[in-house]
Specification:
- By secondary structure, this protein is α/β, with parallel strands linked by helices.
- It folds into 2 domains: about 1-55 and about 90-230 and about 315-333, TIM Barrel (Alpha-Beta Barrel), CATH 3.20.20.70; about 60-90 and about 250-305, no CATH class.
- It is built from 12 helices and 10 strands.
- The strands form 2 sheets. It has a 7-stranded parallel sheet with strand order 1-2-3-4-5-7-8. A 3-stranded antiparallel sheet has the order 6-10-9, with no helix packed on it.
- β7 (about 195), α8 (about 205-210) and β8 (about 215-220) form a beta-alpha-beta unit.
- α1 (about 5-15) runs parallel beside α2 and α3 runs parallel beside α11.
- It is globular, with a radius of gyration of 19 Å.
């Protein structure tokens, strides 16, 4: 939930008995350190810090220029200026040793990996520091790679999940395994705990995941409308609109496959091929510029409104209260 998670929300979740998380994939090292400090000022409980382990962007100036030209009519429609160029706005954890050093120093209870794995020596160092490591897998092959590298808990991300697919290679074939099928496959195969993620919005979904052998459930979309979320008004309005019932997997917004509420950007994406879209996160630079220009004139339809297929079940509650409700619904204590 990079861009949506906040220290306040993570602290509220942890204080209520869950594992609060902060996505730092879009943050500088100093911003990540401040976010961890802000969490600790509000909670003495465990924190998960999530990092993006994607392959650094492959620059293609011709493709990038063509993409900006493809988006020009959209910028003109919202009276925005088309950028002259776009670039790699997020630094991959794989190329961010200062972030690795900062995490070793801060020692959050949990660090989780998305899009792949860091070097094995980093994994070893994080474990030696007493940090529990989680890794996202969308297939059995990715899960086995996580375990072989030293990851202690695997997050089974089903195709229903909102936001970015955790695929190691976004250009590889995707079997699009659902959350429950993938969870059951991994719990039967792996000797490490598995966390079910994707489409789970209430306590009954959590209980079902646990019955399939998962050790826990991970919820993201369920917290987008929480009081402490950083989601803006347009995002929240879209979540409680008809768009919630029509989520779309697209790579046009950021350059990697991600599930989004149906909006003007996803409609545009239906008319372009994957080969036209620049690498992640270069494409995201254009997407964010377009969204910024649109918001300036009151148009929220170009936002990265990430949400899973369970979006119609969203609720607007304080994060701590939502955790309590989820526990009650799941039959827990």
């Amino acid at each position: 939930m990079a861009g949506t998670s906040t220290p306040e929300m993570a602290a509220a979740v942890s204080n209520a008995g869950g594992l609060g998380s902060i996505g730092v994939g879009a943050m500088s090292v100093s911003a990540a350190e401040e976010a961890i400090r802000a969490f600790r000022a509000r909670s003495h409980r465990s924190l998960n810090v999530n990092v993006f382990c994607h392959r650094p962007a492959q620059r293609d100036q011709a493709r990038e220029a063509a993409w900006l030209e493809r988006l020009r009519p959209e910028f003109e429609a919202v009276r925005g200026d088309t950028p002259a160029a776009i670039g790699e706005i997020y630094r991959s954890f794989l190329a961010d040793e200062p972030m690795f050093t900062a995490l070793l120093s801060a020692k959050p209870k949990v660090v989780s990996f998305h899009f792949g794995l860091p070097p094995r020596e980093w994994i070893h160092a994080l474990r030696e520091a007493g940090i529990v490591l989680l890794g996202t897998a969308t297939s059995l092959m990715e899960a086995r790679a996580q375990v072989a590298a030293g990851v202690q808990v695997v997050v089974a991300q089903g195709y229903e999940a909102g936001g970015h697919r955790g695929m190691f290679d976004p250009d590889a074939a995707d079997d699009q395994l659902g959350t429950f099928a993938l969870t059951r496959l991994l719990t039967r195969t792996l000797e490490v705990p598995v966390i079910a993620a994707g489409g789970i919005m209430d306590g009954r979904g959590i209980a079902a995941a646990l019955r399939l052998g998962a050790g826990a459930a991970q919820l993201g979309t369920a917290f987008v409308a929480a009081d402490e979320s950083a989601a803006d008004a347009g995002y929240r309005a879209a979540l409680f609109s008809d768009a919630a019932g029509h989520t779309v997997m697209t790579r046009a917004i950021s350059g990697r496959p991600a599930r989004c509420l149906a909006n003007r950007f996803t409609a545009l994406a239906a008319r372009v091929s994957a080969e036209e879209i620049p690498s992640y996160p270069i494409a995201y630079d254009a997407g964010k510029s377009l969204n910024s220009a649109a918001r300036a004139v009151g148009e929220s339809g170009y936002g990265a409104h990430w949400a899973g297929q369970g979006a119609p079940l969203a609720r607007s509650l304080p994060a701590g209260r939502l955790v309590s409700v989820l526990v009650e619904e799941s039959g827990g204590r």
